[in-house]
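> call design_seq(struct)
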């Protein structure tokens, strides 16, 4: 967790109402966005529809306060804030950013994207690239976690070094 992430998480822990979530929310920070996802208590005997209903109720009942908190955080930390909720096995994200990312690809990589488009898996090269990134993220979670841990250790050692 970077120093900016710690600061944002700490601020949100103090700012969010105590009764919104079961436990501390999951807070993910990147260069563009802060994503706050809280766990909601599942209704008794709820199935996926009941969980989705609980999330919809939370989203509607907290909208004005979430917007105020997001605006405060955006001014303080210069990051957009997005929200989400998880209830049981149902997870929903609200109004998250979709940020354009520029890349240069050689023909073999473009052919992969074009194949996904031609097969109807993706609507466009951009959509195909996003699909590929999601797939790699799902299948490389352990490796990405190890990499992030190593990067955090490098940051910690760098911070302890000579001035």
């Amino acid at each position: 967790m970077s120093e900016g992430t710690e600061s944002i998480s700490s601020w949100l822990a103090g700012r969010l109402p105590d009764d919104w979530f079961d436990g501390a929310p999951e807070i993910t920070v990147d260069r563009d966005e802060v994503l706050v996802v809280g766990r909601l208590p599942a209704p008794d005997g709820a199935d996926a529809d009941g969980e989705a209903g609980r999330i919809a109720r939370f989203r509607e009942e907290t909208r004005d306060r979430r917007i105020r908190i997001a605006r405060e955080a955006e001014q303080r930390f210069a990051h957009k804030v997005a929200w989400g909720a998880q209830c049981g096995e149902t997870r929903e994200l609200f109004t998250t950013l979709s940020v354009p990312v520029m890349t240069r690809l050689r023909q073999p990589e473009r052919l992969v994207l074009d194949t996904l488009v031609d097969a109807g898996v993706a609507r466009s090269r951009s959509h195909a690239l996003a699909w590929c990134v999601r797939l790699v993220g799902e299948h490389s979670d352990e490796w990405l976690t190890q990499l992030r841990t190593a990067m955090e250790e490098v940051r910690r050692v760098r911070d302890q070094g000579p001035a």
